[in-house]
Amino acid sequence: SSGINAEYGDMNILHGNTSIVMLAAGTGITPFYRILKELAANKLFNNHTCDLLFYNKTQKDVLVKDKLESLAGNSKCKIGLVDVLSRETWDALMGHIEESHLSEYSPKSLFLVCGPKLFMELSASVLKDLGVEKCNIIE
Length: 139
What we know:
Structural class: alpha/beta
Number of strands: 5
Number of helices: 6
Oligomer: single chain
């Protein structure tokens, strides 16, 4: 997460990427919440789309869900929120990060990744397999 905080001090890198995909696990949501607040409020991002895939064990582990939903609902850019659970059965995405979760996104999108070490390693492997270049991944 230190890379994300450093890279996004001024949000400049987001201006040239109209498709942003955030991959967060657990407390890895923390830097993304600040970025989403800026995306939601700043009209410079009106033509951007940002999807957050938020990986957690159970629904009760999903941090700041109400705040995220409020941000998405009042945003200038299009923000999509996708919860993915690994230890609870429900009617949406389940399991750990895998190619099928990301197949709808262009490898040219900007991928922001933050979470525990294992999540980071698995995300890097999945993104590489999908043909995403390192320059389009920020950890």
